[in-house]
Design a protein that fits this description.
Elements (H helix, E strand, L loop, with lengths): L5 H10 L8 H4 L15 E3 L10 H11 L1 H5 L4 H10 L5 H11 L6 H7 L5 E5 L7 H5 L10 E5 L6 H8 L7 E3 L8 H10 L5 E3 L7 H10 L5 E3 L8 H10 L16 E3 L7 H10 L5 E3 L20 E3 L7 H9 L6 E3 L23 H11 L7 E3 L15 H8 L6 E3 L28 E3 L10 H4 L7 E3 L7 H10 L5 E3 L14 H7 L1
């Protein structure tokens, strides 16, 4: 038999790779270069002692991930590969998740496609430098079993590449394409033809058109979550085509979506009419994000919605009177985002027009009177409402809000309110023996007027895990007091805190231990 040419030999070798055999490609399975993106943020973190024993499988995955590069170069890689091949499909997504968290920058496309693209779930994101269109194309190997596919930030991969993969995934239930900016009509068409079992679809920051979505909504009867944030080609005219395709009220053939309960329309150029259409067609809606949209006064939003649990109106031109009307009809509200009300920034995420903010102390008092009755409330954001707290030194609306509402929440965001003072947080203290300690787990106070005087108030939050104090006047002494009392605190944002040394801002938990 005649010997193969060099070219033919190389081609054959590429077609018949035994994963367990170390080839030249194995030399490049792991990249040695770490990718550290520059950042001006100053987060200090610490790992708290475990309160329970981790399962043995979890410990094994963590140990393997931490030592992956060392194992690969140890000369015993082939034996490890055999173990990898024996792992059940159900374990692979857990392994991949641990590797992404531990060593994302060393995972090459070859390694990912060879060992990690199997099981019921696959996640590829832009923080994995090794991911490319070949990695995405290899997903089809899991086609008959893949139920959840998450692709985030893959903005260089063309629409047709995503479409060709999704066309081979007939049992998908969850599909996330957030930040895959070239995803468009071809991919959405593939979804509408091949993915009838979808329950969650995330097209945030893609190029999907409104009209292309109509067949998906008609096919996917079980769809409960639809996310469409930040799609630039959605206009009043193009959205009108979607409503027409789904049936017009005037013709009596409106298409309803009773199972759709979670809708994200953030940063879309939608109108009050569009909001009314959504509320009409989705009578069981529970989560609605209308932030950074140009809406003014959608009448149906002012009517009671007892099922609505999460509502975001940040940077909209909803009036204070309408906000009161809306909140009055939400008895099961769990999360409210009402930041920069009146800013009217539309599709822009920047909150820059501070003089346009319309939420006042009087409105906050009325909001407090409503929210204090909502026992399920867990999260409130009032970020960027710059007119709050600007009038009066006594009997302040903020102090009353924190005492009656804020302390009962798990998440509270008051960032960007320069008039907020340390004394406004005094409501976090227990002044009644019948009161329980504050439930706060996350408190955001960036760009406010708080200083060390806030320390005893924050220290009264035993469940606090995340605290953001960027660009405040807090100093080391105030922080020591807080950390001494908040044993669960593990994330601390000290960006631009002049009372803390620049070098210490990222390692403040270590500074506290060394004290």
């Amino acid at each position: 038999m005649a010997p193969k040419s060099k070219t033919a030999k190389s081609s054959s070798k590429k077609r018949n790779i035994d994963i367990g055999h170390k080839t030249q490609d194995d030399e490049d399975l792991l990249t040695s270069k770490s990718v550290n993106l520059p950042s001006s943020s100053a987060w200090s973190t610490r790992t708290l002692p475990l309160t329970h024993v981790l399962p043995l499988s979890t410990l094994c995955l963590k140990t393997f991930s931490v030592n992956l590069q060392k194992i690969h170069s140890s000369g015993n890689w082939q034996a490890q590969v055999e173990w990898l091949k024996l792992l059940p499909d159900s374990v692979i997504p857990r392994l991949f998740a641990t590797l992404r968290q531990t060593c994302p920058s060393i995972l090459s496309s070859n390694f990912i496609t060879a060992y990690l693209l199997r099981g019921p779930s696959v996640t590829l994101t832009d923080d994995l430098p090794g991911v490319n269109k070949n990695t995405v194309a290899a997903i089809i190997r899991s086609g008959e079993h893949l139920k959840e596919l998450v692709l985030r930030g893959l903005d260089k991969i063309p629409d047709e590449n995503f479409a060709s993969v999704i066309a081979q995934l007939p049992v998908l239930q969850v599909l996330v394409l957030s930040g895959c900016t070239k995803v468009g009509s071809k991919t959405v068409a593939a979804i509408s033809q091949r993915c009838p079992n979808l329950t969650k679809l995330n097209l945030n920051y893609t190029s999907a058109t409104p009209i292309s979505l109509a067949p998906v909504l008609k096919l996917c009867a079980h769809l409960n979550t639809l996310k469409l944030a930040g799609i630039s080609n959605w206009t009043e005219a193009t959205i009108g085509k979607l409503w027409a395709a789904l049936g017009d009220d005037t013709e009596g053939d409106t298409f309803y979506l009773p199972n759709l309960t979670n809708i994200n329309l953030r940063q879309l150029s939608i109108s009050d009419f569009d909001v009314n259409q959504v509320l009409t067609r989705c009578p069981n809606i529970q989560k609605l994000d209308l932030s950074f949209t140009p809406i003014h006064h959608p009448p149906l939003l002012l009517t009671p919605h007892p099922n609505l649990e999460k509502l975001s109106l940040t940077s909209t031109q909803i009036s204070s009177a309408d906000i009161i009307s809306i909140l009055t009809g939400l008895p099961n509200l769990k999360s409210l985002s009402a930041g920069a009300i009146g800013g009217g920034q539309g599709s822009s995420v920047a909150i820059s027009n501070t003089s346009a903010m319309t939420l006042t102390d009087q409105t906050l008092r009325e909001i407090t009177d409503i929210l204090v009755e909502y026992n399920q409330l867990e999260s409130v954001s009032l970020v960027g409402n710059t007119k709050l707290g600007s009038v009066g030194r006594i009997d302040r609306a903020f102090e009353d809000f924190v005492k009656r509402v804020g302390r009962k929440c798990k998440h509270l965001n008051l960032a960007g309110i320069s008039s907020l003072k340390s004394s406004d947080l005094s409501g976090l203290l227990i002044d009644d023996i019948e009161l329980e300690p504050s439930k706060l787990q996350e408190l955001v106070l960036n760009n406010t007027g708080v200083n060390d005087e806030v320390a005893p108030y924050i220290s009264a939050c035993p469940n606090l895990q995340t605290l953001e104090l960027g660009s405040t006047k807090i100093s080391e002494e105030g922080l020591f007091t807080i950390i001494d009392s908040c044993s669960q605190l593990s994330r601390l944002n000290l960006t631009s805190c002049r009372g803390v040394g620049v070098v210490d801002r990222r390692r403040f938990f270590e500074v506290w231990e060394e004290r």
